[in-house]
Amino acid sequence: MNTAEPRRRWWPRSVRARTALAVASTAAVILVAIGWWLHRDVYRQSTQIALGQAQAPLLALADQLREGKIPSRRSAVPFEVVATGRSTAVASGGGMDVFAPGSPHVLPAPPRLSEPLVTDSGWYYEQRTIRIPERRDEPAGRFDLGGGTYAVLSTDIWAGELSSTGAANLGVSPDATLRVHVVVLPHTTNAITDSVNSLLVRAGLVSLVLISAITYFTVRIALRPVEAIRVATASVTASDPRERVSVPATGHEITALATTINTTLQRLDDAAAQQRRFIADAAHELRSPLTTLLASLEVALAYPDRTDWPTAVTTAARQTRRLQALAEDLLLLARLDAHAPTTGSGTVDLAALVSLLVEQYGLPDRPVALTADTAAPAYVRGSKGDYERLLRNLVDNAARHATSRVQVNVRNQDEQVVLSVHDDGPGVPGEDAERVFERFVRLDDARSRDRGGTGLGLPIARELAHRHRGTLALVPSDLGACFRLRLPRAPAPPEP
């Protein structure tokens, strides 16, 4: 059966392309916003300029009317002069003069004035937005301004300011009011705005292309150290994790990444080296009892008549027990290294557990006294089996190296339970206080292999202590060795 092809995504997979596309999209949004703002501002300013330019024709037309002259129809701007009491325009031009004689005026007439308008500058004007009506009685195409809405500048003139001859020339009564309308056409404003829009579009497209290209190649250059790190880490193998990546001297994030990767590779290298040492030490520890056991059995089989069978069986049983203990320790360490969950999370009375261990502990074939000092119950949380193994390892270690006695103390100190195992043996040098917790480590002199240890008791005890959020350390002592265990104190369980 054919499997469906994976759906192709339009989003690119390359970090360089993704970054360039994201930056280009962001830049496009910003450029569109800036372009819209520029469009509105250019249109507004162009409109203001057009209005300012229309003031001069308005002033000139008003001056001609005050002199009693009818303005010429030839004008760069559309204008119309209307008066009260007249249905036709006094004068018009610039596109407003296309109507037949006797046609009514297009723009509204002013109210009647009784005196001239006086201002500080001597004249005034008003700005209005007026919709110019269509003239259906005119042939199509002659009046292009009909139906549009335009900005219109207007000023009023009282006919009483004129001479009788001037009023007669204009065809208005002496008490009439004249209004000059100048229509501000948007053609120039639209042309300027369209030109600016075209420039903005071209500049925006070029900017987007440049921004995308610069971003793409900048990210490509910035990711070169990452590619070098990828190539270097790809060559790292489980058998040879000694490869290291080069750390850039720039001090940026790539430097931190390279440093972190080198630190991780170093930890892997250390873990691999530790694993190799562990395997070699485990093989060596297993070979010693196996060699003894095999030699004893081969001698017994070669000379069955002259073999002391009880002694041979005793030797074989002793070496087998040693192999069994070593195998159990290795399995426990493997479980602890794999962070397997503990079996039980109840409350354990450590003081009662110590007392029980001291009563049932089998002492070695040497005069060693094992005593316990437990003043009050000491409750901790965790697995009872793990605590038994931890205490037995500490007591076994102390009993193997003690001269005459081993003392176990349990005390409650604030929020902790403190357990101490003290022997009167030769002690441990200060420089070896941490080495004794390494796997398969045996110190010289009295703490050697001939005492029966596997070199895993103390490492297992520390792992179990850490597993229960505690600490195990070798503390200084005037006589012998003193191992101190600290565990978080737990509340007493409710009475049954």
TrEMBL record:
Keywords annotated in UniProt: Kinase, Membrane, Phosphoprotein, Transferase, Transmembrane, Transmembrane helix, Two-component regulatory system
Top EC category: transferase
Ranges annotated as spanning the membrane: 20-38
Protein name, UniProt field: histidine kinase
Residues annotated as domain HAMP: 220-273
Domain of life: Bacteria
Presence of the UniProt keyword Kinase in the record: yes
Known catalytic reactions: ATP + protein L-histidine = ADP + protein N-phospho-L-histidine
Subcellular location: Cell membrane
UniProt-recorded Gene Ontology molecular function terms: kinase activity
InterPro entries the UniProt entry points to: HAMP_dom, HATPase_C_sf, HATPase_dom, His_kinase_dom, HisK_dim/P_dom, HisK_dim/P_sf, Sig_transdc_His_kin-like_C, TCS_sensor_his_kinase
EC number(s) reported in the record: 2.7.13.3
Major subcellular site: membrane
The Histidine kinase domain, residue ranges: 281-491
SMART domains documented for this protein: HAMP (SM00304), HATPase_c (SM00387), HisKA (SM00388)
